């Protein structure tokens, strides 16, 4: 931990008590050479999540009194973060924290304002999840042209300032690459490890994804087309 972290790892969770301590240990190992902080946002959990987080002094913890959704938890975490870079992870342990340094290296090498989005090339999910994600990714990519084959991957790295420029709304986390492009950033896709869930059950799952209707897609497409990025000339 550092008073001036380079990377803030933001993890939204709801009812993920058994996955928290193992994931924190992995993050600490993966980022041992990188100044960082770990921010957990408890999105109204009703299991032992608050108690587990209270017992981990290396973790900054925030809590929503009632569940407001994954996007709201990410927004809360990023606003509280102190690092220049934000790395987001799903709280179920399926994203591998060991990939974060590689995403950071690629972002820094690219220069400028850049988002690096993880691409789960070997997904360890059920057939239903894989099939629904493939269909959603195809429709979204055709409509938004957001430069990534797997926007549903929870592992992403981007500057905090970039995220704070974006419009914030429910389910926005599913459109982060498109919103980054709208804000003038470069979006890069990076293959990452994906692991099977070992403990607990999905809390932000297939039914939650189905809540993202065609109106959300058209809304983001409208934002893309209506936004303008003026070029500032020196006097």
**Number of separate strands:** 7
Tell me the distance between the termini: 44 Å
**Can you list the strand order of the major beta sheet?**
3-2-1-4-6-5-7
Quick one: biggest sheet?
Answer: 7 strands, mixed
What is the mean pLDDT? Answer: 87
- As residue ranges, the low-confidence spans are none
Order of helices and strands: EHEHEHEHEHEHHEHH
Helix-and-strand structural type = alpha/beta
Tally of helical segments: 9
Query: Helicity level, as a percent range?
Result: 25-40%
Instruction: Indicate the proportion of strand residues.
Output: 15-25%
Shape: globular
Give me the Rg, rounded: 17 Å
Characteristics:
235 residues; alpha/beta; seven-stranded mixed β-sheet; 9 helices; 7 strands; 39% helix
Mind explaining what this structure looks like?
There is one protein chain. With 235 residues, the chain is of the alpha/beta class. It is 39% helix and 18% strand. It contains nine helices and seven strands; from the N terminus they run E-H-E-H-E-H-E-H-E-H-E-H-H-E-H-H. The protein has helices at 17-30, 49-54, 70-80, 100-110, 127-144, 160-165, 176-182, 206-210, 214-226, and strands at residues 7-13, 36-43, 59-64, 85-88, 114-120, 156-159, 186-192. It has a seven-stranded mixed sheet, sandwiched between helices. Strand 2, helix 2 and strand 3 (59-64) form a beta-alpha-beta unit. It is globular and about 55 Å long. The protein starts with 6 loop residues before the first strand and ends in a 9-residue tail after the last helix. The model has no long low-confidence stretch (mean pLDDT 87).
């Amino acid at each position: 931990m550092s008073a001036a972290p380079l990377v803030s790892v933001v993890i939204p969770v709801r009812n993920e008590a058994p996955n928290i301590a193992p994931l924190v240990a992995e993050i600490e190992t993966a980022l041992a050479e990188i100044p960082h902080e770990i921010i957990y946002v408890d999105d109204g959990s009703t299991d032992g999540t608050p108690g587990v987080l209270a017992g981990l002094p290396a973790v900054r913890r925030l809590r929503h009194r009632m569940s407001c959704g994954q996007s709201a938890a990410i927004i809360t975490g990023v606003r509280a973060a102190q690092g220049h870079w934000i790395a987001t992870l799903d709280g179920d342990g399926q994203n591998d924290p060991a990939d974060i340094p590689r995403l950071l290296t690629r972002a820094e090498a690219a220069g400028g304002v850049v988002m690096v989005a993880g691409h789960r090339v070997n997904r360890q999910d059920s057939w239903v999840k894989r099939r629904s994600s493939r269909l959603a990714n195809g429709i979204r990519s055709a409509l938004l042209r957001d430069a990534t084959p797997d926007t549903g991957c929870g592992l992403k790295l981007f500057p905090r300032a970039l995220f704070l420029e974006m419009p914030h709304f429910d389910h926005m986390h599913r459109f982060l690459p498109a919103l980054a492009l709208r804000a003038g950033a470069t979006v890069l896709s990076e293959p990452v490890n994906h692991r099977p869930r070992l403990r607990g059950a999905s809390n932000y799952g297939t039914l939650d994804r189905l809540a993202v209707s065609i109106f959300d897609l058209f809304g983001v497409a409208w934002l893309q087309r209506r936004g303008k990025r003026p070029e500032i000339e020196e006097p």
